[in-house]
Design goal:
3-stranded antiparallel β-sheet; about 60% helix; about 260 residues; 4-stranded mixed β-sheet; alpha+beta
Amino acid sequence: MLLSEPPPSQGDLHFRIFGFPVRVHPMFWLVTGIMGFQSGEEGGTPPGELLSWVAVVFVSILIHELGHAVLQRRYGGHPWITLYGLGGLASCDDCDRSPRSQIIISLAGPVAGFVLAGAVVLLMGLGGHPIAFEWGAHAQGALTLTDPKGFGLFRLWVYWESLASSWANEVVLDALWINVMWGAINLLPIYPLDGGRVAREVFTLQHPRRGIVLSLQISAIVAVAMALVGAVAWQSLFTALMFGYLAYSNYQTLQAYRENRW
Ligand SMILES: [Zn+2]
């Protein structure tokens, strides 16, 4: 993910990880903090929980971008990572641009997040706190636990017997939720999300002339649908605005293509 890099700012944090330069724009902390605060109980999220939410988002998005960056380096590039208000970006101006490498690079981000979620599930199991999954209207198995913790995602339920520390429960919940949601959202065929990049490459391989227009049309339609889901089903202003903006920018690009190229 997403759009273009923000200009350098005085509040930027710089560091290197595995040799990749990383820049964190101050808007990253602000937007992540606001999202964590909004998702909390009435009266806002307690400061400790908010801090661990920000830390888990930071690590998760960094891992997602590292997934892209490792593959970009594998394809001959010198990538750098930016975390900003709308997530992260792994940029590379000297990578192999062939469709095959671009598709693999795009998929590597979501895959890295799913692997991280899988590692959390594995560690919990090894530590004697297995995480259970259930599909349906209610999590029936959770009724057998004395103090279940977890969450529902559409009809998928994820739960475990509560850990002794409520902070640890929060961290596990945030880590699973963010990595699964972020990976799934990024796989939607909306440009410039990872799934949208994959769709663009696949469509242009199939139809060299119409491919980009076709992928932009699908991109705009799915983005409108997601903005509606965000506004109505999830009641999330952030989701509605983000997908509304993506729908608009895809529509604009589509118009430009139509006017200039055919
Ligand atoms: Zn990505």
